[in-house]
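Objective 1b. Sequence-to-structure analysis of Endoglucanase.
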Amino acid sequence: MNLVQSLLILPGMMVSMVVGVVYSHDYGDALSKSILFFEGQRSGKLPPNQRMTWRKDSALQDGLQVDLTGGYYDAGDNVKFNFPMAFSTTMLAWSVLEFGKTMGSDQKHALDAIRWATDYFLKATSIPGYVFTQVGDPHSDHNCWERPEDMDTNRTPYSVSKQFPGSEVSAEIAAALAASSMAFRPSDAGYSARLLKRATMVFEFADKYKGSYNGSLGPWVCPFYCDFSGYEDELLWGAAWLFRATKATYYWNYVVNNIHDLEKYSIIKNVNGVSYTGGSFAEFGWDSKHAGINVLVSRIMENSPSSGPFVQNADKFVCSLLPDSPTKLVSYSPGGLLFKLGGSNLQHATALSFLLVVYSRYLKQTDRVIHCGDVIVNRYRLIQFARDQVDYILGSNPLNMSYMVGYGKNFPKRIHHRASSLPSIDKHPRHIDCKGGSSYFESNNPNPNLLTGAVVGGPDIKDSYADSRADFVHSEPTTYINAPFVGLLAYFKSNASP
């Protein structure tokens, strides 16, 4: 452990004694790199201040009659999936709102990363009655291994509408715009107001025309980012963020009056279609927003009687994670990494740890502890849990391997990422077609371009890691792994007492 902490638990009380603090990781360096990663995921016309210079302009014709240039590629492919992109944007904005003051000069870069997405979402929601949800045919894209700068696959834009609704992706975009409006409020009031106005319009559309985009766009969004947990959680998530941004009673009433919708899905399917039992209160990620809603509302409505159900479920969420809790719903590797079913496991370690650090602030403000059966948990325990997960990712694990590219001496060299694995245009200006990159994919050589800051899917539950491009479940980075990690690193960079 990097924070050596002794806990004395006696019946009915807990005494926490911080014996000593030893920092073995440079959280500030990791923070800078985690934000830089988003520049490697950029689509569109790159700006003059682009720091990841091996990446070049790409997908400049996206949208046909509608300008849909910009935004992010979600992972190691060249498709723009707006559902996970919006979630990543919401988490980046939440990171700035909670921990921006400790980011130092990196806060500007974090805001740049958010704006790259919100500028795109303003375009994707510019036609009343339509919300664009995706750009690119994932089936043809996943059949190729080529640089985004060389794409010659179909760049079909997909949208939802009144007749073919998509409440989950629309409401998540509304959440992203609302959260981002608050992040920009201190520095750019005009842009902030524009984002908030659009957020209210998109949320109204999502709520008025209810339905999942699985129904109309299933052949293209599934199995990649199919909605497995229903769209009701995104509607509450969007309303909660709009309440925080506007303080309008309408949004608070919406959340309170629809809280029962969060319990509709007591059995959640993961992205591989495997079912497992677990209350929805324990879920959080690009698909399920349940735990995030409870933690967010608890933070907004501190000491408010009406926040009771949300606090109870947030407490249950905490108890679902801790290794010694009698109601634990997750597994752990021998080295201590949290595991949930499904691919890209580090998305769970980063997102759930982020919620714990945010919730620890609620516990501090309300002077509360959590009871997980006979186990008494205070806020220091939540922070220590999150720090252990962060340190594992940065290299404090049985392999002594950092799972962030470019951080530490030992990190993944053969990540599942097209742009990183193929030579840059600077080195190989000639076009590389769909199958032209296959030899690079199959090569055992390290990727020629360093996707600095990228956090990959991570090791298996036995703490093993193959460092193979073909093993995409473990070697592929994603924006929704990095986004909550930004907030975590900003918090631990501060070196403040818990």
